[in-house]
Design a protein that fits this description.
It contains four helices and 16 strands. The protein is of the alpha+beta class.
């Protein structure tokens, strides 16, 4: 029994603007029929989950535990990508990267960190533009998500873990130190749903047995179940889809 990754969700003060920024960054498509308090971004590169941008009143506070890494095919491509994103509302930021680091760190229009990775990165060589969902975290949480999604571990050493869909489509999900204290609810989280005929309740029980726990973030009476993974990151278990 496993779950399917349905969406990576962003909290957003202006979900339409943020969705359009990331559509341009990834060359994905905004589902115009969803433009409301939740805007969906549809992949064009074989990735098997979408990005959702969900309206919230709170502004970002502190550094995110989760950010996206974008690949580049050449130095020219890296530079032009950075220039395009800045023109769309991104800005250069300093998160402690050194002067010799070759990746470029930006913040999107709502302050969410992202990296444009230098060309020649061998780990991301088989990815398209969307290279990785990159997370602060422990090896334990990488093992948890490998079991939760049925995605094999493709890296597990030096306190870093990485998983990828079994068919090697879409980005990696990676975890590594340091695991900083959370300033509050994560700005990005995963939505998953049970597959293989499992019901929501049974899948929640399985995930709790793997190390998750039920949490209350003020969700009220909703159709999904909110859990936290072993590193205390929120995620949602939807009904089977």
């Amino acid at each position: 029994m496993t779950s399917r990754l349905v969406a990576l969700c962003f909290d957003a003060n202006d979900p339409v603007r943020l969705a359009r920024f990331w559509a341009a960054a990834l060359d994905w498509i905004v589902d115009e029929a969803t433009i409301d308090d939740v805007v969906e971004l549809v992949p064009t590169d074989g990735t098997r989950f979408r990005l959702d941008f969900c309206r919230v009143p709170e502004s970002k506070a502190g550094k995110n535990r989760i950010h996206l890494d974008l690949t580049s095919s050449s130095l020219e491509d890296q530079n032009s990508t950075v220039e395009k994103l800045v023109a769309l509302g991104a800005r250069h930021i300093d998160v402690g990267q050194g002067p010799d680091d070759e990746h470029v760190v930006l913040a999107d229009p709502e302050g969410n960190e992202l990296c444009v990775i230098e060309p020649g990165n061998s780990f991301l060589a088989t990815c398209g533009r969307f290279g990785s969902i990159t997370c602060d975290g422990t090896p334990q949480v990488g093992h948890f998500w490998s079991e939760a999604l049925g995605w094999p571990l493709v890296w597990d050493q030096d306190e870093e873990t990485a998983i990828r869909a079994p068919d090697r489509t879409g980005p990696f999900i990676t975890w590594g130190p340091p695991l900083r204290p959370k300033p509050g609810k994560n700005r990005l989280h995963l939505d998953i749903a049970p597959v293989d005929g499992a019901d929501q309740s049974s899948e929640v029980d399985r995930l709790v047995a793997l190390g998750a726990r039920r949490i209350d973030i003020g969700q009220g009476d909703v159709e999904w179940v909110v859990l936290a993974d072993p590193d205390d990151n929120e995620f949602c278990v939807l009904r089977p889809q």
